[in-house]
Amino acid sequence: MINRSEARALLASLTTNPSLLRHMRTIELVMEAYAGKLGEDPEVWAIAGLLHDADYEAFPEQHPNVIVTKLRETGNEMIAHAISAHYTKWGVSYDNLLDKGLLACDELTGFVVACAQVRPDGVASLEPKSVIKKLKDKGFAAKVDREEVYKGVELFAVDLAEHIGFIIEVLRQNKAELGI
Prior knowledge:
Radius of gyration: 15 Å
Helix content: 55-70%
Strand content: under 5%
Order of helices and strands: HHHHHHHHHH
Oligomer: single chain
Number of helices: 10
Largest sheet: none
Shape: globular
Number of strands: 0
Distance between the termini: 32 Å
């Protein structure tokens, strides 16, 4: 299996955009934390989060096929499958918790970061109820696909407020690094 160091090198070969790199780092952290909570392999979950959008900058029209192919060629099928399924409109099956977790964490974590960025104290005092209220405001972070957020929560079988609270806590623990 690919290790974290190899995953970072692969990511660096495909992505330079600081915002995109930060997004993938946030997903890496949230996925790693969820793996620990659920008794799953933290390394596998973290790498799936880290690499899920690795090809988006260099190959936006082929995303996620480039990174999925690279992972499959190196025998990393589980991570490749999860990445190939991180958007419901692609029609890929959700076979395990990793697949469902990545879907549930991707859009929503990005949305939580957006919520933190408009607050004077960032993520420090952000509460799930504030995020849920912002989810209802279609004008806020309009590019975030709310349908994906809700479908991810449903498939991952988590309570929306608890899921948001978990994401917030992971972001708080890493706020200095993430700049939020």
